[in-house]
Design brief:
Length: 91
């Protein structure tokens, strides 16, 4: 079920740096080196596979931008929040 705006606002207030962008949630992680950025992406991939919920990933040198929404639900759901929380635990 798609989160209401108030539910989303509450969830995002607990997630450092995550924000709503065009109906999705997004964060850019800035790693120390390119190899660390790639290692982080591998960890995110493992997490996403375990949750069967996959983000869009943009790698720009040391910056990794994750963008998440639940396409089959048509918006942002608890699945997206769970993935975002898991990513926060990886860094």
């Amino acid at each position: 079920m798609v989160l209401s705006q108030s539910e989303l606002t509450e969830e995002l207030s607990r997630l450092n740096g995550w924000e709503e962008v065009n109906g999705e949630i997004q964060k850019t992680y800035r790693l120390e080196t390119f190899p660390e950025a790639i290692q982080f992406v591998h960890l995110v991939a493992d997490l996403a596979e375990s949750l069967d919920h996959h983000p869009n990933i943009l790698i720009e040198y040391r910056n990794v931008t994750l963008t998440v929404s639940t396409h089959d639900e048509g918006g942002i759901t608890e699945k997206d929040i769970t993935l975002a929380k898991g990513c926060e635990e990886l860094v």
